[in-house]
Amino acid sequence: MRKFINIHTHNKQTEGVVSVINLGDNYNRCLDFNPCSIGIHPWFVTDTSFKGQLDELANYAAHETVFAIGECGLDKRCETEWLLQEKAFFEQIKLANRIDKPLLIHCVKAFGEVVQCLQKVNSKVPVIFHGFNRGITVARTLIEKGYYLSFGRSLIRDQHLESLKACPLTQLFLETDDAELEIETVYNKASVVLGMPVEALAVQLHENYARVKKTKFNI
Ligand SMILES: [Zn+2]
């Protein structure tokens, strides 16, 4: 049985699972978390802190334990000024492209704007929309552009299962985010919805992970 991949979690490593631990600050911790994602979340960026956050992020981004830059993106429901959100996002897209690592996207009610930002700077790196919980129209738009969708809590709540079914297996990831949830539970649910064995799903997501990470190494 291939190890499960948890593409986005704020919790600790679980044995037998490849968990991409998200670190939203103190990026030097990336040395202790393998694999991890590091990035500036739109909720936690301020005018005064931004330059320092970005410098620190750039210092650690190329480290081998860092799988992706993120979670970063745009959020229409948060207090952070929109122009600052965009600036922070643009800088992180550019950084990810400089070091050729994937982007892990946090997006709330701003899918069109996120895509515009990515296209504006001609981003070439893999893009993973984490915690995807939208309907099939948004799902299809992102899938057509070659982006990856990562599902978690919404599956357990039986929300937008049609989006999961519409997602090509080669563009799929699963996650727990900050929920009190085992990744195994998410795999089991996805396997039922997709009508495929958990083992086959595990093999597929393992392949996706290796492709995005551009590695052939066993994980
Ligand atoms: Zn998260």
Query: What's the SSE pattern?
Result: EEEHEHEHEHEHHEHH
Largest sheet: 8 strands, parallel
Q: Judging by the overall fold, what is the CATH architecture?
A: Alpha-Beta Barrel
Which CATH first-tier class would you pick?
A: Alpha Beta
The assembly state of the depicted protein chains is single chain
What coarse outline follows from CA principal-axis ratios?
globular
Distance between the termini: 12 Å
Kindly identify the CATH topology. TIM Barrel
Widest beta sheet: strand line-up: 1-2-3-4-5-6-7-8
Approximate helicity band: 25-40%
Instruction: Give the count of helical stretches.
Output: 8
Whole-number tally of structural domains: 1
What proportion of the residues form beta strands (DSSP E)?
15-25%
InterPro entries: Metal_Hydrolase, TatD-like
Keywords: Hydrolase
Protein name: TatD family hydrolase
GO molecular function: hydrolase activity
Provide a descriptive summary of the structure in words.
- With 219 residues, the chain is of the alpha/beta class.
- It has a single domain (4-212), classed as Alpha-Beta Barrel (TIM Barrel).
- 39% of the residues lie in helices and 19% in strands.
- It has eight helices and eight strands; from the N terminus they run E-E-E-H-E-H-E-H-E-H-E-H-H-E-H-H.
- The chain has helices spanning 50-60, 82-99, 111-120, 136-144, 153-156, 161-166, 183-194, 198-213; strands at residues 4-9, 17-23, 36-38, 66-75, 103-108, 127-129, 148-151, 172-174.
- An eight-stranded parallel β-sheet has the order 1-2-3-4-5-6-7-8, with helices on both faces.
- The longest helix is centred in the middle third of the chain and has 18 residues, at 82-99.
- It is globular.
- It starts with a strand and ends in a 6-residue tail after the last helix.
- The model has no long low-confidence stretch (mean pLDDT 95).
- Zinc ion (ZN) binds at residues 8, 10, 22, 71, 177-178.
